[in-house]
Amino acid sequence: MLAVPTLYFVGKLSVQKAHATAILTVLPLCAVSAICYFTASAFDWHLTLWVGLGAVVGGAVGALLLKRLPGKAITLLFSALMVGAGIYSIIGG
Amino acid sequence: MEIWYAVCGLFAGILGGMGMGGGTVLIPLLTMVLGVEQISAQATNLIVFVPMSVVALFLHFKNKLIDGSSLKPFVPLAVAGAIGGALLASRVKGGALKICFGVFLIALGVLQAILAYTVKESKQKEKEGEKANIQKKGERA
After folding, report:
1. Three-state secondary structure of A54-75
2. What residues of chain B score a pLDDT lower than 70?
3. Which pLDDT does position B137 carry in this prediction?
4. Which chain B residues are closer than 8 Å to A67 by Cβ?
5. How far apart are CA B28 and CA B53, in angstroms?
6. Under an 8 A CB cutoff, do A59 and B103 touch?
7. Which tens digit of pLDDT belongs to each residue from A42-70?
8. Torsion sign across C-alpha atoms B5, B11, B13, B15
9. Residues of A whose CB is below 8 A from B99
């Protein structure tokens, strides 16, 4: 979540490029963490398979949407998600 | 139940594919709505992010939206941030850390929305001003 504003405000990338490039920065971190969970057997195969199926289709849809949506709409949606995640972290996390 | 798991994955995947961190909604959806244990939800989130982001990155590369060269200056910054975060996490209580992070996210989200609006508006005004000047020059010529 912090990669996008950094790439946008500091790296001076466009909104779309900042969001797309942020995935590239998060992927190796996620892959390493996923291996840790994988080896620790802390996951549910059945759940992961079904969620993964939806997520892969959703990932393709999201990638196509990012190309088509205007930068302002993307930023507003992302800002709303950040505020929501912040509230969840304070009261529900 | 399986279909709801897939629906949650789809929703999170759309946000993840847009570079908005699908886990932000996937973990609360799985734990609060579908009653999945926190540890399973976290593990699932990290594991499904890998194939999802590979598919999304393939399309982003195809659409020329990846700027790998701009990442280089941020690598030392990210490493320093990760070390600093890990040290901070070990010294500060979990609850306090979550509240601090929550406040930080809210502030950053609001600031980002305000800045995006003001920057775009000022850029638009500059462009409009430039267009008006060009028109004026054309009329004079």
Report:
1. HHHHHHHHHHHHHHHCCHHHHH
2. 82, 85-86, 89-90, 94, 119-141
3. 61
4. 59, 63, 65
5. 20
6. no
7. 678 899 999 999 999 999 999 999 999 99
8. negative
9. 89-90
pLDDT recorded at residue A7 = 86
Q: How far is B74 from chain A (nearest CA, A)?
A: 9
Helices (H) and strands (E) in chain A, counts: 4, 0
If one counts every other C-beta atom within 10 angstroms of the C-beta of residue B89, the result is 12
Q: Nearest CA of chain B to the CA of A69: how many Å?
A: 10
Strand spans (E) along chain B? none
Please give the structure tokens belonging to residue B40.
Answer: 């399973």
Count of A-B CB contacts under 8 Å = 287
